[in-house]
Design goal:
alpha/beta; Rossmann fold; seven-stranded parallel sheet; 10 helices; 7 strands; 46% helix; 15% strand; globular; binds nicotinamide-adenine-dinucleotide
Length: 255
């Protein structure tokens, strides 16, 4: 077991990729905090994992929630070794909503949520002299931004831009906190078969993406991502920081 006795917070672990991260971390021996805004789903995931796993409700876009979560985890387990910033608005995302208000809403969760969570756990990680932050980016951060739009309304590129911003945050934060033993990395998945993806990407479009854009001709399953997260969370990666690792079946590599 590669994460024995580590305490790991996984945000957005109520379903999809976050749930797979939480389950795998627990199998690797971590004490997992399933953190999600969805109480019903988060509670069910923590119960299914069992053992030391607990559910904590958090809206990552709320300063109060993020601070309360970090305090609760530190009080309960005495430390925080891993923060996996996976929560994002993805399921049900309004791809054609280019309003300023919606752009800010997506930023509040997908980008500021990750920053708020980092800010909340940092004092604990700094005090213990170690910690691994993993930001969930996306291959979308690199993709061609030719979004279809009508009339003269400029697209906001909301989802891709929040993921590109997360990559930048990963870089800058890693440079600042390394001296305290804290590492910051990112995982950028390609298309992964969660309920959200099935809802957003029509089947025919997925076939095109897989066959025309990816070196490995199949979409990812959530479990395909968990090994990279375990490695980044583990001591095997103790000199790895500031990296954004594409786990995308060779999609961005092909350009
Ligand atoms: N599925 C893909 O193809 C894919 C590809 C690249 C990157 N990603 C990223 O991976 C992550 C998970 O993707 P998914 O497909 O499992 O998405 P999903 O929409 O199925 O799951 C997101 C989870 O985050 C939670 N969440 C949403 N807003 C929250 C908030 N304000 N506070 C706390 N929790 C909140 C949701 O309740 C849900 O449990 C996201 O960051 C997504 O951007 C997904």
């Amino acid at each position: 077991m590669r994460l024995e006795n580590k305490v790991a917070i996984v945000t957005g672990a109520g379903q999809g990729i976050g749930e797979a991260y939480a389950q795998r971390f627990a199998r690797e021996g971590a004490k997992v905090v399933v953190a999600d805004v969805n109480v019903e789903k988060g509670t069910a995931v923590a119960a299914a994992i069992g053992g030391d796993a607990v559910f904590e409700r958090v809206d990552v876009a709320s300063e109060d929630d993020t601070r309360r979560l970090a305090r609760a985890v530190a009080d309960r387990f005495g430390r925080i070794d891993v923060l996996l910033n996976n929560a994002a608005i993805f399921y049900g995302i309004e791809n054609q909503n280019f309003s300023y208000a919606y752009l800010r809403k997506i930023f509040d969760v997908n980008y500021f949520g990750a920053w708020l969570m980092c800010r909340a756990v940092f004092p604990v990680m700094k005090q213990q002299g170690s910690g691994s932050v993993i930001n969930q980016s996306s291959a979308a951060a690199w993709m061609h931004p030719d979004i279809p739009f009508e009339g003269d309304q400029l697209p906001s590129f909301h989802y891709s831009v929040t993921k590109a911003a997360l990559n930048a945050m990963t870089h800058y934060m890693a440079g600042c906190v390394g001296k305290f033993g804290v590492r910051v990395n990112a995982i950028a998945p390609g298309p992964t078969m969660t309920e959200a993806t099935k809802q957003i990407v029509p089947e025919g479009v997925m076939d095109l993406i897989v066959n025309m854009m990816m070196a490995i001709h199949r979409p990812l399953e959530p479990d395909d991502l968990t090994g990279t997260a375990v490695w980044l969370a583990s001591d095997d990666a103790k000199m790895v920081t500031g990296q954004c690792i594409l786990v995308d079946g060779g999609m961005i590599m092909l350009g």
